[in-house]
Design goal:
This is UPF0102 protein CYB_2119. The chain has one domain (6-130): Trna Endonuclease, Chain: A, domain 1, CATH 3.40.1350.10. By secondary structure, the chain is of the alpha+beta class. It contains two helices and five strands; from the N terminus they run αβββαββ.
């Protein structure tokens, strides 16, 4: 069987990472409202709600030793601005959620390949990873 094209393989890796974070959040009592929510300004990987808090979670799945410190450097100012605009679009479509306290979290997932196969691990979860300016 032919290997997946690189883009499809990376997309699948990202989807698996999002699944791990989704499971983690559910175990923490969060209700997932959306996954891979898209708008003209970008995509929100996960949107979740618990009590009076709404979180927008950016998930980065990387192999060990990645150039961007496990995905953390990929969430720079331009990416943060896109996430904020996407969150504003999400809230405009879900006005009943606009009174909740909102925050932006970042989840870092590590993908490890070995002879036994591929495994994933949540390396770090950063609540309120950046401020809304």
């Amino acid at each position: 069987m032919d290997p997946l094209p690189r883009r499809a393989s990376l997309q699948n890796t990202g989807n698996v990472g999002e699944g791990w974070v989704r499971q983690y959040l559910c175990q923490q009592g969060w209700q997932i409202l959306a996954q891979r929510w898209r708008c003209p300004w970008g995509e929100l990987d996960l949107v979740a709600h618990k009590a009076d808090v709404l979180i927008f979670v950016e998930v980065k799945t990387r192999s060990p030793g990645s150039w961007d410190r496990g995905g953390l450097l990929a969430v720079g100012i331009p990416k943060q601005r896109r996430l904020i605009r996407a969150a504003q679009a999400f809230l405009s479509q879900h006005p009943h959620l606009s009174e909740l306290s909102c925050r932006f979290d970042v989840a870092l997932i590590e993908r490890r390949a070995s002879r036994e196969g591929v495994s994933y691990a949540l390396v770090d979860y950063l609540p309120a990873a950046f401020e809304i300016c």
